[in-house]
Structure formats: structure tokens, C-alpha cells
């Protein structure tokens, strides 16, 4: 991946990455509500999920997607999901350990940082 593609990925993709992160968090919030009895129902994850998916679709229609970006977006989605899972399990320790979720989040964040050019920058 060249420097031009890295710059293009950083400029066009930040909004999409944040929307994918929010969609992952909302998806996990809905899953947590259905599977963990201590988590109360809230309508806000539904609203945020619908709005973030709609905004992701509109962004997809407006801007071309670089070739490596779908994997980075999927990784951001999983960061949101596993991050929210770790947060919920920290709040309710009886629901299980959050160690695996934290390790997955850190590994995915490192990989995203490397793909976006923030971590382990190559010298030219």
C-alpha cells in the first residue's frame, strides 16, 4: 500500500470507521440485553444502530472505497462489539471474564493502527 493510498484511507475512512465502531457497540448492546439478565432494555441502541447503518450506507454510496478498507471497517465493527462486551462484563463480573475481549480489542486496534499508518510507520 503506497503513501497515497494511506492518506486516502485516512481522509475518507475516519467517518466510516467511527460509524462501524458505533454499529458494533450497538449490536453488542442489543445482544447483551437479550443474553444477560442484569442488562436493562433501552431503545437507544436500536436508534443508534439504525442511524449508523443508514449513515454507513450513504457514505458507501457517496465515496469510493479503497481496496483494503472493508477489512479495516470490519475490524472497527468488531472493536466496537468486543469493547462493549468487555465494558459490560466489567460492570457485571458474574457474567464472565472480559480478558479475551480486551486482548481481541487491543490486537485489532494495533492492526487498524498499522493499516492506517499510525503504528510502525515505514521509513521512505
UniProtKB/TrEMBL annotation:
Membrane-spanning segments: 16-33, 69-90, 96-113
Superkingdom classification of source: Bacteria
Annotated Pfam families: DUF1422 (PF07226)
Keywords: Membrane, Transmembrane, Transmembrane helix
Name of the featured protein: YijD family membrane protein
Lineage: Bacteria, Pseudomonadati, Pseudomonadota, Gammaproteobacteria, Vibrionales
Amino acid at each position: 500500500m503506497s503513501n497515497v493510498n494511506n492518506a486516502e484511507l485516512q481522509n475518507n475512512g475516519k467517518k466510516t470507521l467511527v460509524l462501524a465502531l458505533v454499529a458494533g457497540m450497538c449490536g453488542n448492546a442489543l445482544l447483551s440485553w437479550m443474553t444477560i439478565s442484569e442488562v436493562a432494555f433501552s431503545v437507544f441502541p436500536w436508534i443508534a444502530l439504525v442511524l449508523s447503518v443508514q449513515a454507513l450506507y450513504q457514505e458507501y454510496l457517496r465515496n469510493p472505497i479503497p481496496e483494503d478498507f472493508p477489512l479495516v471497517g470490519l475490524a472497527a465493527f468488531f472493536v466496537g462489539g468486543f469493547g462493549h462486551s468487555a465494558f459490560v462484563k466489567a460492570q457485571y463480573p458474574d457474567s464472565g471474564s472480559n480478558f479475551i475481549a480486551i486482548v481481541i480489542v487491543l490486537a485489532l486496534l494495533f492492526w487498524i493502527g498499522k493499516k492506517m499508518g499510525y503504528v510502525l510507520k515505514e521509513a521512505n
